Amino acid sequence: MVILINFDTIIITILLISILKNFFMENNKYGKIFWITGLSGSGKSTIGEHLKKMINRKYGKTIIIHGDNMRDIFQLKFYTMTKRLKLGKSYSDLCRLLAQQNINVVFTTVGLFNELFLYNRKNLKKNYVEIYIKTDIEKLKKNKSKTFYKVRTHNVWGLDLKPQFPKKPDIMIENNFQVSPAILAKKIFEKINIIKS
Q: What are 63's strand-pairing partners?
């Protein structure tokens, strides 16, 4: 029996297999979620902005979302514990949606609930990196930029709301305001590289 092999057909078949392989590999990729949490005024947003640039350069398309910006855009003026927790879970769902489109997300928020951290672990799975910025509440109270630490207000983390700090964050950095946010971001990025290696 003689088998005739068309060379052009073989080349086309190989090219098609290669294209399909790359297509499915690309569409099976998931972005990472770098969830930065800590008390208000701890430097989350500024550190996150520096970190986003580093992640974007090394790991590809990355966006940053600040919880405060989300509140402003959608005019979310509620601050009770119950509604904060519900909002935190919605943020988590948004991050998952973006990660499914192969986009890395740096998300900064307070959201100091153990229930939320557990929800993130379950909802975002291996794509989730929890980063905790530890700070001294007494130093934050002296920070002039955060007036709600100085005036009598309600529903403030660290004052009348008892924070539930992450028990086992993937990365923990202490911000004593003695070094720049850029340096702290670099330290976090170095730890991220160890996690991803």
A: 105
Q: How far apart are CA 154 and CA 157, in angstroms?
A: 9
- Counting as low any pLDDT under 70, the low residues of the chain are 1-28, 144-153, 155, 157-159, 197
Distance CA 37, CA 97 (A): 20
pTM: 0.82
Q: What is the CATH number of domain 30-196?
A: 3.40.50.300
> What is the rounded CA–CA span in Å between residue 12 and residue 16?
6
Which run of H or of E encompasses 54?
helix 44-59
Q: Which two tokens stand for residue 170?
A: 């993937």
Whole-angstrom CA distances from 93 to 28, 36, 133, 169, 174 are: 19, 16, 22, 19, 28
Report the alpha-carbon angle 91-108-64, nearest 5. 85
Question: Strands of 33-37's sheet, edge to edge?
Answer: 62-66, 104-108, 33-37, 128-134, 171-174
Instruction: Say how far apart CA 112 and CA 86 lie, in whole Å.
Output: 12
What whole-number distance in Å separates Cα of residue 166 and Cα of residue 159?
18
Q: How far apart are CA 63 and CA 94, in angstroms?
A: 12
Question: Distance (Å, rounded) from C-alpha 39 to C-alpha 133?
Answer: 8
